[in-house]
Amino acid sequence: MVDIATKPTQDVTAEVTAWLEENWDPDLTVGDWWERLGSSGWAAPTWPLDWYGRGLSREEGVRVQKAIVSFGALGAPGGLGLLLAGPTIVTHGTDEQKARYLRDIVTGQKAWCQLFSEPSAGSDLAGLQARAVRDGDEWIVNGQKVWTSGGQIADLGMLLARSDADVPKHQGISYYALEMHQAAVEVRPLREMTGRALFNEVFLTDARVPDDALIGGLNNGWAVANTTLAFERAGLGAGGGSESASLATPGTVAGDLVRRAGDFVSGRAKRASGGNGGTGLVAGAEHLFTELAKGNGLIANATVRQDLMRLHSYNEIGRYTMLRQKALKQAGVEFPGVGNIAKLSMSRILRLSRDLGLRILGPLGTLHAYTSEERTKLDAATGNPLTAIVTEMALFSPAPSIYGGTDEVQKNILGERVLGLPKEPSNDRTVPFRELPKNG
Fold this sequence. Notes:
Blueprint: H1 12-23, H2 30-40, H3 58-71, H4 80-92, H5 95-106, E1 112-115, E2 131-135, E3 138-146, E4 156-162, E5 173-179, E6 185-190, E7 199-210, H6 221-236, H7 268-272, H8 282-296, H9 302-330, H10 338-361, H11 372-382, H12 387-396, H13 407-418
Parallel strand pairs: 1-4
Antiparallel strand pairs: 2-3, 3-7, 4-5, 6-7
Helix pairs in contact: 1-3, 4-5, 4-6, 6-10, 8-9, 8-10, 9-10, 10-12, 10-13
């Protein structure tokens, strides 16, 4: 529990800054600093007061993140624990599960991964075939997962598995917190065209999960998974503020918990302008591209200026969409499909960033460094250390239109659930999963 008596005032930026002035110490270890930040409620300010949060709105939470970055302190633990697992457990977990998992998330002690997609169950996630069979007070799980971000450094996994094949496919899925550090879990990296291996495939062979790690109730996994996906789409979407995530990696595997916290805050401005090839690039892409265009004279090109303005407009639309959602929520009105809209917006922003960045680079856009050694050589050969940032962003750009549900899935959801358009004919909600045809 958090020792917070009252909800913060409206001026959250001033409040968190005052707290940082008293508490930030760059000589603390990452683990000690995250313990201090997490127990104060500032690591997850949108969570409830009783569970390591401060009960703030999403927009206020983004302001807190940015205030921590601006102050020069190490931000809250990044990764899928704080983004997905924690909010899902806050929503669906029992008090015992909240007590067991949430503190380790806000203090960065445990890292999480997402064990949802399978080779034959990506866009059709409810078609998953990983099987969970009860064995006394445990469940035995067999199956294969793929596109598992951070699986190689995760302590726990958000696992979807089929617990009943004799009911329609959406009704027979359960959601578990899986201990990753067991011999029955094998993680294999998948190298991307960027040269990195952020994703993995995971093989489960008689993996065991205690029954009390079942989140949200037996066979209720589809509802719980949709909560996770809603947080994912909102967090990855335009206006989500994800650029404020910490540079240090949570969990017992990465080894950052024992390192000096201050060592992770130098160069934060460089990251904000596009250091990691992911969605954190977006906030700084406008400035990055503008400076590049000024440097090579393309800023005088009317179509380049037009696309720079288009990129700025897309980002502003994303930001205003989040502000609109906040205003509607405060008025007690829902904003249907806002997470899906935000994720589609992010895909569009990254496609424009890809095309515009490569256009500004010109022939240099055909070059890319896949290792740190190659990066040094590329920087020396081109005399432009920003080249590799732009090419990595371009190579990474297809990913956001796929992970977290493809753009096509987002459009189907908006069409069917928001606009009320008819669904495609299907009997998969009435026929037992065992009787449905399976992909070869």
